[in-house]
Amino acid sequence: MKFTAAQIAGILEGEVIGNPNAEVFKLSKIEEGTEGSLTFLANPKYINYIYSTKATITIVNNSFEPENEISTTLIKVDDAYKSFSKLLEYYNQVKLMKSGIEQPSVISEGVTYGENLYLGSFCYIGKNVTIGKNVKIYPNSFVGDNTTIGDDCILFAGVRIYSESVIGSRCVIHSGTIIGSDGFGFAPQEDGTYNKVPQIGNVILEDDVEVGSCTTIDRATLGSTIVRKGVKLDNQIQIAHNVEIGENTVIASQTGIAGSTKIGKNCMIGGQVGIVGHITIGDNVRIQAQSGVGKSVKDGETLQGSPSFNYGDWNKSYVHFRNLPKIVADLENLKKKTN
């Protein structure tokens, strides 16, 4: 996919200084620019690279005036960093601009879908599924019976959506993710075996949720596992049955949340955090990476450690943890002197 300097300037409402017909087909850092690449200069500490870069086009701030000869074509804008981000977003939209139903694919009876559907090859859409407009479902994906998917959603290749799931509008679900698999419910028997407890609930993702690759969100035993609007989930996260995650909470990779725990809104949870079941975590909570949370947490708290406790207290305690051998040696010496 190629773009000229004139086309890029039109998208960014910028001014071309140099060759308006210069073409680019890839992106690069300014210090690694090569012919055919587009880059940007926003940080003054990289200004020297503008004179040596081999990038064909460089986006710069309006205030930039070269002091030496340059070979790259410039596009001047109000804010080079924001303009480059805007261009990335535009490029991503163009790249994902697909429509039509590829074959082979299966659309079962009772399915309804809106305009501009893209359904990749080897997809299976179950019975009575409702799909909104401008939805993109990439190859090798599965959507189970009676599922609802809102407008402008993207399901990347290899996504699995089990039956009765509800996906809101503008959701993005990345490859390998499973929505609606059975919750981990087994009843111990007298002979030491376990009987499976039927998991007959569902999963609800509200609007503007993004779920990273290879994340699993289990269906509820009864009722719904709910991910509220604006939540962002990283890769490889486990969310158990009947969990509820509040609006605009973000959770990093390899975190596990046990069943029936309620997490508030605007929380930030680091990677490899373990959270036990049947507790409540308040709004605006911060949990540092690799923490183990074993009890309910009040609004606004920041936690670290396993088991986790107040972040400030943890930092103070860590000083003593590191000095523990010396502290023990000092105690032994005191014991000897007092004996």
From TrEMBL:
The reactions it catalyses are: a UDP-3-O-[(3R)-3-hydroxyacyl]-alpha-D-glucosamine + a (3R)-hydroxyacyl-[ACP] = a UDP-2-N,3-O-bis[(3R)-3-hydroxyacyl]-alpha-D-glucosamine + holo-[ACP] + H(+)
Highest rank taxon of the organism: Bacteria
Q: Name one GO molecular function term.
A: UDP-3-O-[(3R)-3-hydroxyacyl]-glucosamine N-acyltransferase activity
Q: Residues in the active site? A: 241
Q: What keywords are assigned to this protein?
A: Acyltransferase, Lipid A biosynthesis, Lipid biosynthesis, Lipid metabolism, Repeat, Transferase
Note the InterPro entries from the entry: Hexapep, LpxD, Trimer_LpxA-like_sf, UDP_GlcNAc_AcTrfase_non-rep
Annotated metabolic or biological route of this protein:
Bacterial outer membrane biogenesis; LPS lipid A biosynthesis
Q: According to the UniProt entry, what is the EC number of this protein? A: 2.3.1.191
**For the UDP-3-O-[3-hydroxymyristoyl] glucosamine N-acyltransferase non-repeat region domain, which residue ranges apply?**
22-89
List the SUPFAM superfamilies. Answer: Trimeric LpxA-like enzymes
What CDD domains does its record include? LbH_LpxD (cd03352)
By its UniProt entry, which Pfam families does this protein fall under?
Hexapep (PF00132), LpxD (PF04613)
Gene3D superfamilies with a match to the protein in the record: Hexapeptide repeat proteins, MurE/MurF, N-terminal domain
Please describe the quaternary structure of this protein: Homotrimer.
Sequence similarity: Belongs to the transferase hexapeptide repeat family. LpxD subfamily.
Instruction: Provide the function of this protein.
Output: Catalyzes the N-acylation of UDP-3-O-acylglucosamine using 3-hydroxyacyl-ACP as the acyl donor. Is involved in the biosynthesis of lipid A, a phosphorylated glycolipid that anchors the lipopolysaccharide to the outer membrane of the cell.
Q: Which HAMAP family match?
A: LpxD (MF_00523)
What is the recorded name of this protein?
Answer: UDP-3-O-acylglucosamine N-acyltransferase
The organism encoding this protein is Flavobacterium macrobrachii
Q: What is the lineage of its organism?
A: Bacteria, Pseudomonadati, Bacteroidota, Flavobacteriia, Flavobacteriales
